[in-house]
Design goal:
With 734 residues, this protein is mainly β.
């Protein structure tokens, strides 16, 4: 035992020195006694932390030892190989190893695979990857290409990259300007179809209502069908008759949000600013910058993507990425276009990989990272991943969606080793997505349990903010114990797709809680854009203290679900929708309940819905508080009570509030609150002004304490000050 004390001059320090000597003697004796016992393991000092340095922007050499910034390695691949060698050596197996990437760009030619030899096995230390220097290190999955001017404001060059763009027919689905802003494949406006399309051998024959110009030999079409927009090859187009044939549509009719197509990469003389076309046969890329260059004779530099996955972590434990950027990967969708137009049975499920992949690993942490311009989902916690997280990060400019969690199986996972468990996504911005695959979620969960999704900001997507479950019946699943809290989810749909929401849940998920989320501005194309949506088969879910407003559809929608608790929420100011069947058309709906004859809530002992202490508020005279389609008998056992209903446009005659219903025997298109109460529901509820003083500013956290909703119905004010990443106080650990 060694004790070191400075400044021994004073009498006090002399006395302290004597006391410390006695204490040291006692401790040494006790320690010697412990060492003599056979049941106490020998203590050994941990191996010191080892660092490997990698130079940016083409510096360094893989012949260096990489152990100091003065002699850095040149590539991240070499650093990963060096880590594997250190793990194989007994002296350094248990050491914590840090790969330090110099600020700047690190081009990744092919997927970096970190496996059992690098970061797995018993007694292996932690592996960290982080930046050093004055700027952020970027793992770059794209390569620069200098285009030459054609003299007409466009620029072109052959992509001479046989590894990724040989004569295999691959399309360039993503491109970025030199400053990193995404450029889009040249596209027509939306073109409507005429009449009902025909399906022949899986291909769709449709007449377009206007001509489409350009060379169609490498053209594709987004074909819009409600919640999805499959990408097809344009197999044939007759300009005089305007008949087009689209590949692999699998019988998808143009329903709901359908009747539209959008053709891309139809090579024509005039390319839109900020877009490009690509001739696959000659690998010729042609591009028009967003604004003309001051020197029209100068070349233009763009970046095109190469690998689909930048980093793959498989069979590892205790891995951390921090203060690193991952940028620009290939969507890798050419194969699925050939199979099923990248649609499958449901849109969100098609992307089976990620720009970052984690599988069969534990305690993998991404903390304060940027994932920019991924082609597939940005990060995929796949089979067998446990106790892992993404926190305090930004995920943006998405080719598909943001984060995918779980396994693409229906119902249960039979092998516990394959189950995905205890994943956290927190304090993260997920935004600006669906640039290639339009139907990817901000966060998509399938067959995973014990998830914490909190304090995230999810916005500006064509599809849903958070999709969970993805089964369509009441059978048991491997989904359970998910918490979705304090997220800010907004500006979704953007008028392009239908059947989407801030949250979209399908199937059974016991002990799942949606709490304290703020959801607004859901702009579906046709009208099926929801705030909170418990879709077919949903059960075991509690939704409380959420605020939803401005959804083009309904603020809350239930479809064939049971055993739900919807308590103390605000559902406000839905926007106009149109339902094609009775009981209503041109409807503003604060809530919608649809229970089909074949899905009547399951066992009689299970209450299909408890809807209490909610405030549902409209502001249009023709607005209905809710819609019940199909059969009210299916609601037997449901509890509706202590709710507050209001329409600001009917303040002078509140009893005119509309409750359209269909009860299986008769349709009540102009039902009143009294008609609804006659079925035994909402006995204690009120039609009254909830008294939000700043409702016109969409502030529903401030409610007058004297409001009858508070004093008589027990509504509790909802605190929204800490919603989103700014309210995140830190990762609580695995």
């Amino acid at each position: 035992v060694t004790v070191s004390v400075l400044y021994w001059g004073s009498p006090f320090h002399v006395r302290m020195k004597a006391r410390l000597f006695v204490l040291a003697l006692v401790c040494a004796t006790a320690f010697a006694s412990l060492r003599s016992r056979e049941d106490v393991p020998r203590w050994e000092a941990p191996a010191p932390e080892l660092s490997l340095f990698v130079a940016a922007d083409g510096g360094g050499s893989d012949a260096n030892n990489g152990t100091s910034p003065a002699e850095p390695l040149a590539t991240v691949e070499a650093a990963v190989r060096r880590v594997a060698a250190l793990r194989a050596a007994t002296a350094t197996k248990s050491a914590d190893i840090v790969i330090r990437l110099q600020g700047g760009e690190h081009e990744v030619d092919r997927t970096l695979r970190m496996d059992h030899a690098v970061c797995g096995g018993e007694g292996v230390g932690k592996l960290s990857v982080t930046s050093y220097g004055d700027s952020l290190a970027t793992l770059l999955g794209a390569r620069r290409l200098e285009l030459q001017p054609r003299g007409d404001g466009t620029y072109e060059r052959v992509i001479d990259d046989p590894e990724y763009y040989g004569d295999s027919g691959k399309m360039v689905w993503s491109l970025w300007a030199e400053d990193g802003t995404r450029q889009l494949v040249d596209s027509t406006p939306f073109v409507a179809t005429v009449g009902t399309p025909r399906f022949v051998n899986g291909n769709m024959h449709a007449e377009l209502n206007e001509s489409v110009a350009g060379d169609m030999s490498d053209a594709y079409a987004y074909v819009y069908h409600c919640w999805t927009s499959p990408i097809s090859k344009v197999l044939h187009y007759n300009e005089s008759t305007r008949e087009a044939v689209f590949s692999n549509q699998n019988g998808f009719a143009l329903t709901g949000g359908g009747g539209r197509v959008r053709v891309v990469n139809a090579r024509k003389r005039d390319i839109s600013p900020g877009s490009y076309t690509y001739a696959k046969q000659g690998r010729l890329l042609r591009y028009r910058p967003p604004t003309p260059l001051s020197d029209p004779t100068a070349n233009v530099t763009v970046l095109y993507p190469r690998p689909t996955t930048l980093v793959e972590v498989v069979g590892c434990h205790d891995v951390e990425f921090s203060n690193v950027s991952f940028a620009f990967t290939n969507p890798g969708i050419d194969h699925c276009i050939d199979v099923d137009s990248c649609a499958g049975t449901q849109g969100s499920t098609m992307a089976l990989t990620g720009a970052l992949m984690v599988a069969h690993s534990q305690r993998v942490l991404f903390d304060t990272v940027e994932i920019r311009g991924p082609g597939p989902y940005a990060l995929y916690f796949a089979n067998g991943t446990k106790d892992s997280a993404l926190v305090r990060s930004e995920v943006h400019d998405l080719g598909t969606g943001g984060i995918r969690i779980g396994i693409p199986v229906k119902n249960t996972v039979n092998d516990e080793a394959e189950q995905v468990s205890r994943i956290t996504i927190a304090g993260t911005y997920i935004h600006d997505g669906n640039h290639v695959i339009e139907f990817g979620d901000g966060i998509f969960v399938q067959a995973a349990d014990t998830l914490t999704l909190e304090h995230n900001s999810i916005h500006d997507l064509y599809y849903s903010g958070v999709g969970l479950g993805w089964t369509w019946d009441f059978e048991p699943t491997s989904n359970h114990d998910t918490t979705l809290r304090k997220n800010h989810i907004y500006n979704l749909g953007k008028g392009r797709l239908d059947e989407l929401g801030c949250t979209h849940h399908l199937g059974s998920s016991p002990n799942t809680v949606f709490e304290g989320n703020l959801c607004h501005d859901i702009q579906a194309y046709d009208g099926e854009g929801y705030g909170l949506w418990t879709d077919q088969g949903s059960q075991g879910i509690t939704m409380r203290n959420n605020v939803v407003y401005r959804a083009k559809g309904t603020a809350y929608s239930l479809h064939d679900s049971r055993n739900l608790t919807i308590d103390n929420n605000v559902f406000a100011f839905p926007q106009q929708i149109e339902f094609p069947n009775p009981p209503v058309r041109n409807m503003f709906a604060g809530m919608r309940v649809l229970i089909s004859d074949g899905h009547k809530g399951g066992n009689a002992s299970e209450v299909p819905l408890t809807f209490t202490r909610n405030i549902v508020i409209n502001r249009n005279a023709s607005a209905g508080i809710w819609i019940q389609k199909q059969n009210l008998d299916a609601l037997q056992g449901a509890v509706f009570d202590y709710n507050c209903y209001w329409n600001t446009a009917l303040a002078s005659d509140p009893q005119k509030i509309w409750f359209p219903m269909k009860d299986g025997r008769r349709t009540i298109p102009n039902g009143t609150f009294a008609d609804w109460q006659s079925y035994g529901y909402d006995a204690h509820s009120l039609v009254t002004d909830p008294m939000f003083p700043h409702a016109d500013a969409y502030d529903f956290s401030d409610i007058d304490p004297a409001s009858p909703c508070v004093t008589q119905l027990g509504f509790q004010p909802i605190n929204l000050t800490d919603v989103g990443p700014q309210g995140y106080t830190g990762f609580r650990g695995f």
